[in-house]
Amino acid sequence: MIFPLLQLALHTIAVTAQTDHASSFAFTSNGNPILSNGSWYSGDPAPLVVNDTLYIITGHDTAPANENAFNMNEWGMFVSASPSADGGEWTLYPNVAEPQTLFSWAEPGSAYAAQIVQGTDGKFYMYAPVTEANSSNEDAFAIGVAVSDAPTGPYTDAHPSGPIISQSIPSPGNNIQNIDPTVLVDDDGKVYIYFGTFGALLGYELDPDMVTVKTDVTKVTSLTGYFEAPWLMKRQDTYYMLFAANNAGPDSPCTPTSYHACIAYGTASSPMGPWTFQDVILPVVSSTTSHPGAVEVNGEWYLVYHTADAAGGGHFRRSIALDVLTWDDTQSPAKINVVDQTWAPKSSTSPTYNVAPKAKASSVNETPIQYWVEALHDEIVRENPLPPDYWCSWIDTDSPRVNTLVYTWNETVQLNGTSMVFFADHAAGANEGVAPPQEWYVEYRDHSERWQRVENTTSYPLGVTDSPDVVRFEPVDTGAIRAILVASGGNGQYAGVAVKEWEALSTTLHSV
Ligand code: FUB
After folding, report:
1. Catalytic annotation on 374?
2. Which CATH architecture has domain 352-510?
3. Do 317 and 63 contact (CB within 8 A), yes or no?
4. pLDDT tens-place string over residues 176-217
5. d(CA 136, CA 320)
6. Interior CA angle at 422 toward 420 and 425, to 5°?
7. 103 Cβ below 6 A of ligand 1
8. Ligand 1 centre and the CA of 100: distance in Å?
């Protein structure tokens, strides 16, 4: 199989094609995301170590830039014998498997989060959530198992009679979406599988044949904020369950917005629980989903996860990253320390007049939980944004008439301009949904801490465009500005107002 664009984009091309599944490309990484040029987006990493080499199976994200949906048709694999958060040498196998070629009963597409583990027989077992072609279940996702003699494949169906888990297998009554399997082969050879999303986490013991469900289902409800993406592992005598959590709120230790997820974990002294929630170990990342895997390789533990940080990346164009995971062995059970997220050094960026990223952003009105005040100054303007990609005031029929956004700096800045990128799903003048504001203006805090309107302004544009005209005003020296946004509507019912980005322009250039 030939991947001409990928070949051009990767830094180095070293390995030639052997068979389709084993085509591979070598590249050098400078840090996170591991492959940062956007040539091959990867989500849902699941690490495996064999002979001191790290193998990370991932889904391949292929959604177009402005499509808000998973478009995942195959799994690929990143391999390195010298992994490091600073980069290193990697080989990408872009096509390890596809749902319909692994399983005769599976549809193409939906190559969701898979994990490969080594069985006691030395073979490699891939637990893959796919959609069943002729499913009569309400939700067609099912977990199949494929087997291979090598981590990179080729994989063949280990249970040709069908999935090992679905809404009707091993028994009816499972009404969850059966994705995100995580499997542990314990030191005594026993095998355990957990899976589930949207707050549901189920588990079984499997037979050592790796495919037969042995026990009744275990339902885990004690892991605070559990959303999806479980990762089961064992260190010393303790079982750890890492997972994506989304218990959201202004004071949540996990995430301020309901669309994002943090990575948290719980522990147990037995593989089927009971599980005790422990802590958050990775705050929200730039993609709405977060998905952990953790492994020890060459004496160092790593957390692997995905972000939207690669070139052209997004919530459905994710890229995997890897950072050092450390332990606090003074605690019992040993605690996982908060992981320090790192990025590859940025190539030099041009200085900018926009000092909004250096400000603290806040909203005087409470921000509804699906929106994010930090989106105001993240310098990311998405054409087709999800709610946390913008700040918004929409509360069904209770959206406030007046909304105030504030930027505060630790130092005095001299400003002479501002711009706002609005988002709207209703036309100007609407009294429902999200519409452009009826009017807006900017005030600055003067030397006496009083708010004053900026003067001699050019007009405040009200159009919905991702490249709005800048509002110029007489320079002000200040430590804070605020934008007053008056919503459209009337008679007690107003539309929401939404802002994708709010720039505060300095009179002088600033380095980033
Ligand atoms: O990649 C599809 C889904 O996104 C996974 O199943 C979840 O864990 C989330 O990462």
Report:
1. no
2. Sandwich (2.60)
3. yes
4. 999 999 999 999 999 999 999 999 999 999 999 999 999 999
5. 34
6. 175
7. no
8. 19
CA of 291 to the centre of ligand 1 (A): 7
Using one digit for the tens of pLDDT, what is the confidence trace for 345-379?
987 778 999 999 999 999 999 999 999 999 999 99
Q: Which of 74, 180, 228, 501 is catalytic?
A: 228
CB-CB contact of 45 with 290 (8 Å): no
CB neighbour list of residue 208: distance below 8 Å, 6 or more residues apart: 119, 120, 189, 190, 191
Q: Check pocket membership of 443 for ligand 1, CB cut-off 6 A.
A: no
Task: For domain 5-336, give its CATH number from 1.10.287.690, 1.10.260.40, 2.115.10.20, 2.60.40.1470.
Answer: 2.115.10.20
Could you tell me the pTM of the whole model? 0.94
- Verify whether ligand 1 is closer than 6 Å to residue 227 (CB atom): no
Place of tokens 């007489």: 474
Is the CB of 180 within 6 Å of ligand 1?
yes
Q: Which atom of ligand 1 is nearest to the CA of 59?
A: 1
For residues 77 and 85, what is the distance between their CA atoms, to the nearest angstrom? 17
Distance CA 201, CA 227 (A): 8
Give average pLDDT by consecutive 10-residue segment, the chain, 512 residues: 36 38 88 98 98 98 97 98 96 98 97 98 98 97 98 98 97 96 98 98 98 97 98 98 97 97 98 98 98 97 98 98 98 98 88 97 97 97 97 96 98 98 98 98 97 98 96 98 98 97 97 78
The first and second tokens of residue 465, run together, are 């465009």
Q: Given this model, what pLDDT does residue 346 score?
A: 85
CA-nearest residue for atom 2, ligand 1, is 112
Kindly report the backbone phi and psi dihedral angles of residue 440, in degrees, each rounded to the nearest multiple of 5, phi listed first. -155, 155
Q: Is the CB of 228 under 6 A from ligand 1?
A: yes
Tokens of 462: 């009200």
* Per-domain residue ranges of the chain: 5-336, 352-510
Q: Which residue in the list 44, 61, 74, 180 is annotated as catalytic?
A: 61
> Is 379 a residue of the active site?
no
Tokens 């001191």 sit on residue: 52
113 lines ligand 1 (CB under 6 A): yes
Q: Which long-range contacts (CB under 8 A, 24 or more apart) does 371-379 make?
A: 371/257, 371/498, 372/256, 372/257, 372/260, 373/405, 374/256, 375/500, 375/501, 376/405, 376/499, 376/501, 376/502, 377/407, 377/501, 377/502, 378/501, 379/354, 379/501
